[in-house]
Amino acid sequence: MKLAAVDIGSNAIRMQITSVTQYEGIIKFKKVEYLRFPLRLGLDVFHNQKISEINRRKFVKLMKAFKILIDLYEVDDYMACATSAMRESVNGKEIALEVREEIGLKINIIDGNREAELINKSLNKFFDEKTYLHIDVGGGSTELNIYKSREKIASKSFQIGSVRALEDKVATPVWSTMEAFVHKYLENSPSVISIGTGGNINKIFELSLPHKNKRYLDYEKIEEVLGRLQTLTFEERVNKLNLNHDRADVIIPAGKIYQRVMQAAKSKKMLVPDLGLKDGIIHVLYERNKTKKPL
Questions:
Q1: Same structural domain for residues 25 and 139?
Q2: Which of 9, 22, 55, 194 gives 267 a disulfide partner, CB atoms 3.0 to 4.6 angstroms apart?
Q3: If pLDDT is split at 50, 70 and 90, which confidence band does 24 have?
Q4: Predicted structure pTM score
């Protein structure tokens, strides 16, 4: 069985194709294709409330390329989800309809709660009796989910993201609202463990190597990495650290969002599992297709 997930974000668009196999009763998921294209839809939307004609044409071409790959890989099922940029764009639904009619690719424009729900599908195995704060920072929004004793007790999406922060398009009251949300549910909770998802925290984790904990970052280590990044120019981040152009400019504002949420929760440690929306989509696709026989 082959499954495809398309994550249409504000800073970039990703597609992952996963093969599901079964051998001696064990189900295995293997990534067979992964593509990330740096189309920053959020830049248009956060300034002008709509996707520009140039980026609209690029987007339609990209969706056509993805649809060709989905067909070539003979994918059994797929799901394409668009998040903050397309849901806030006045022409987002119109573009999604164009893609469906011209290419035959269905795009689901999802709200922040659904986005958080999908991401959490891939994280369930990490939860235990402790208290966890899941922080997912995208280009246009940040989703927070709070878990106590394996149960999700609160979830909320905020219009704070790496591209939005870079362009100074975060409304000042939103920061206070986000911190108040964290305080409401975690003020009296000791030892809150953060879980960070998103491309920027994954890159911060890579830049933090070597470290003692396999998939964990201390708050101080995040601060150290951000401090090092701030001493470098954009060109130095690209050439010395080999960061993509569309990562080199947003990684610092994104890192500060993770920091601010951790500070509000008094969380000193973060798990970075290298999972995200695309992995949650694959999980949902498998659940609705698992009655079909894997390869």
A1: no
A2: 194
A3: confident
A4: 0.90
